UniProtKB/TrEMBL annotation:
InterPro entries: DAGK, DAGK_sf, UDPK. This is Diacylglycerol kinase family protein. The keyword Transmembrane applies. The keyword rRNA-binding does not apply. It is a multi-pass membrane protein. Keywords: ATP-binding, Cell membrane, Kinase, Lipid biosynthesis, Lipid metabolism, Membrane, Nucleotide-binding, Phospholipid biosynthesis, Phospholipid metabolism, Transferase, Transmembrane, Transmembrane helix. The chain crosses the membrane at residues 28-46, 52-72, 93-116. It comes from the Bacteria. GO terms for molecular function: kinase activity. Its main location: membrane. It is found in: Cell membrane. Belongs to the bacterial diacylglycerol kinase family.
Amino acid sequence: MNKIKKHLTSYQYSINGIWLAFRYENNMIFHLVAAITVVIVNSLLKVTQTEWLITLILIGLAWMAEIFNTAIEKLADQVTREQDPLIGQVKDLASGAVLIICIVAAVCAAIIYLPYLLK
Ligand SMILES: Nc1ncnc2c1ncn2[C@@H]1O[C@H](COP(=O)(O)OP(=O)(O)OP(=O)(O)O)[C@@H](O)[C@H]1O
């Protein structure tokens, strides 16, 4: 019973983490708008089951990368708020991870949607 309670409490912490990401990271709103747009476009274009899966996985990956990026930024700020070349690199690396998944998502969106739009 104690284990179940502990498990359920950990979900509370995780949900709090998502809430914190929205509070600290303005880009989270952009990701939310992008995710809602993808769901609407998928429904309108009646994309296939595989295309739904690919787009939903990409949405999840983008959100995951942004939340990790926010966590790393917070940790880096806790280490020092002074100008530090290594802290700068750490933040750039984390931000690079978000950019990569966003570029991949944009390319995949073009590959999936263009054939429907050019029909
Ligand atoms: N302490 C620091 N020392 C050196 N460079 C830093 C430091 N803090 C930030 N930077 C540089 O400034 C960039 C922006 O950092 P910042 O913490 O402002 O994130 P941000 O651009 O506001 O990110 P986001 O928009 O995701 O919140 C970093 O990628 C890094 O290159």
